[in-house]
Design brief:
Shape: globular
Order of helices and strands: EHEHHHHEEHEEHEHEH
Distance between the termini: 33 Å
Oligomer: single chain
Structural class: alpha/beta
Strand content: 5-15%
């Protein structure tokens, strides 16, 4: 099923403060009056994507910048070590509830249903019962985004219509193929970084799972890129990092404190704005 448009924003998943890169990219896109006909998001990309689908303007991007800049005080992942361990002991599945993130989304979004957003929006989550990806294209927004961003072990699975969902990054971290299948002809890929850094064999138990996930994440995206039809124009925007972090660098997964968010937004904004200008995309 097509979406009746031409331009798609594809926002990938990723951990910790790295999601701020997508915010800088969105700022660059809206400044050049590039408006999507469709927005697709995974995990943190679903959070950023739904915000821009609600208001695909420079003002909408700036509200997202403000939300990220204040993330340390938003208390999304609040609580002492004792409280987090108590949550884990009680639930046996996760360290935090999703109530604070639910509240933040409620404050950020002007409507409650996906079909009422200014721009068509879809987000993906992993169905536990069906062991497959599930796309939300209508219905309550907040539940769908919470499902897409339900990081295993960190946030609880989300139950919708009797089915349980986990983070969409498990099944489709950067959903380029979905945009192509829906008929997009010009696609802007917004991502958290690390894609251009080579992988190395794991050196510790901590790294084993990360290496395995990164292989799966990159393998699908590389396959999608290789299968892009000749008539489809794909632009992978830039994070502005001179030396991307190793995929196993623990600092990029520090989700409870993000002191360099503004710097990440600014770097990605500058690099992506330069890329768009060099390629003559949008209006200056």
């Amino acid at each position: 099923m097509g979406f009746g448009g031409r331009v798609a924003f594809v926002l990938g998943g990723g951990g910790g403060p790295l999601g701020a890169h997508e915010v800088g990219m969105l700022r660059a896109l809206t400044e050049r009056a590039i408006v999507p006909d469709l927005v697709l998001g995974t995990s943190v990309g679903a959070i950023n994507g739904v915000a821009i689908a609600a208001d695909p303007t420079p003002d909408g991007a700036e509200r997202l910048v403000a939300a990220w800049s204040d993330i340390d005080r938003s208390r999304i992942f609040d609580g002492s070590v004792v409280r987090r361990l108590a949550t884990l002991a009680r639930t046996r599945t996760h360290l935090h509830g999703n109530g604070s993130l639910r509240m933040l989304l409620g404050e950020l979004l002007p409507v409650s249903r996906i079909e009422d957003l200014a721009v068509p929006f879809q987000c993906v989550a992993a169905s536990i019962e069906r062991a497959s990806e599930h796309w939300f294209a209508d219905g309550p927004i907040i539940d769908a985004v919470l499902a897409s961003a339900a990081v295993p072990g960190l946030l609880p699975p989300v139950q919708i219509d009797g089915e349980h969902f986990l983070d969409g990054g498990i099944v489709n971290s950067i959903p380029l193929g979905r945009a192509i299948a829906l008929g997009a002809e010009q696609i802007f890929v917004l991502h958290v970084g690390r894609l251009d850094r080579p992988l190395d064999p794991p050196r510790s138990p901590w790294e084993v799972a990360l290496v395995a996930f990164e292989i799966a994440r990159r393998h699908r995206f590389v396959g999608d890129v290789a299968a892009v039809p000749a008539h489809v124009d794909v632009h992978v925007l830039l994070t502005g990092q001179r030396d991307p972090p190793r995929y196993t660098d623990r600092s990029q997964f520090r989700y409870r404190s993000m002191p360099d968010v503004r710097e990440r937004i600014a770097r990605a904004h500058a690099a992506s704005a330069e890329y768009l200008a060099e390629h003559g995309l949008g209006s200056g």
